[in-house]
Amino acid sequence: ILLWVQLYYGSVGKDLALLDTQNLLRAQITNFTFNLGFSGKFYHTGTEEEDEGDDRLLGSVDEFWWFPHMWSHMQPHLFHNESSLVEQMILNKKFALVLPRQTCGLFTHTIFYKEYPGGPKELDKSIQGGELFFTVVLNPVRTTALYLFLVMHPSILSNSPSPKTFEEVQFFNRNNYHRGIDWYMDFFPVPSNVTTDFLFEKSANYFHSEEAPKRAASLVPKAKIITILIDPSDRAYSWYQHQRSHEDPAALRFSFYEVISAGPRAPSELRALQKRCLVPGWYASHIERWLVYFPPFQLLIIDGQQLRTDPATVMDEVQKFLGVSPHYNYSEALTFDSHKGFWCQLLEEGKTKCLGKSKGRKYPPMDPDSRAFLSSYYREHNVELSKLLHRLGQPLPSWLRQELQKLR
């Protein structure tokens, strides 16, 4: 029995999962064997982890059947002469393995219309091309406000909520990633116009994740990345208060100063909370990690303070960055609610749609000792951020300019 298998990307563990699946199927189907196609040109052209996956799959070469594609996966009928065709075939004959790659069923299968997997409706979704969407990578502060502003635009659509993580899918940074692409894409609607509509998701945890940049680049290499930066001291304090509101035992037990100044011998739950408060504020380090996988022109950095005070101007910048149309006039669509203390969507007849009661909470001001500690703690991180933003040609957020003035 043959099963024509074409994988998207090799990563450590993928090959073993393939072998485990084959052995599982052999318990039901005698001598079941995967038949793997290979195109030699793409071997060892991925990340270090993907290249290691290539090697580990090659180590199990005798466990599978293999068939050759063309060296560079060109279609044979596109060659203009026999010598070029033979050259490509000889190159692939000398080769042992392919970097697994993504394929499209519309071109690699010959299927009757009514027999297409999922039926004609699934085929019709692909007629106009693939979805155009971007991932919004955010810090936990101001995320919901930007989310509200984005979905106001007629050409921008968000994912549906998750039953466990609510409006955030948490795909690229958690074990949800192993659920696969279909699981992820099921959260997104089918755009009414795939050439102009944008799909997006937001996460407060992608920004400082070790895994998210590489995973996102593998799946959506042309994604537009947006991140909101506020004063890291305020971000740390906001996270601490957020955890208190969710009755985190460590946040309820220890003061903010005790959390941020805890030493290496502090209780594990205290050190864990300290890490979640402090490490996300290493902005330059996290941005550099994303720049390993995404070019600078796909990254937009938003001044969190400006988003709070002048969201219409910020959203004009976002629209320009995305290249989305039509242009949406946020100056007319937003109004400031003095009672709630933030900007809301202006509806018909003067009504407004604002963030929920849990947003924009009022906290006691940060104590002076904590402010001084964090100012010193983040000093070098802020200097590195200013250098990075200058290199990228991006303006410095207002809070960063103020922090740098303290160093003079």
TrEMBL record:
CC terms in the record's Gene Ontology section: Golgi membrane
Any Pfam family hit: Sulfotransfer_1
InterPro entries cross-referenced by the UniProt entry: Heparan_SO4_deacetylase_dom, NST/OST, P-loop_NTPase, Sulfotransferase_dom
Q: Where is the Sulfotransferase domain?
A: 143-381
Q: What is the designated name of this protein? A: Sulfotransferase
Which pathway does the UniProt entry assign to this protein? Answer: Glycan metabolism; heparin biosynthesis; Glycan metabolism; heparan sulfate biosynthesis
Record domain Heparan sulphate-N-deacetylase deacetylase: where: 17-96, 98-133
Q: How does it sit in the membrane?
A: Single-pass type II membrane protein
PANTHER family per the UniProt record, alphabetical: BIFUNCTIONAL HEPARAN SULFATE N-DEACETYLASE_N-SULFOTRANSFERASE 3, HEPARAN SULFATE SULFOTRANSFERASE
The positions annotated for binding 3'-phosphoadenylyl sulfate are S238, W343, K359, G360, R361, K362, Y363
Which GO terms are recorded in the biological process aspect for this UniProt protein?
heparan sulfate proteoglycan biosynthetic process; heparin proteoglycan biosynthetic process
User: Could you state a single Gene Ontology molecular function term?
Assistant: heparan sulfate N-sulfotransferase activity
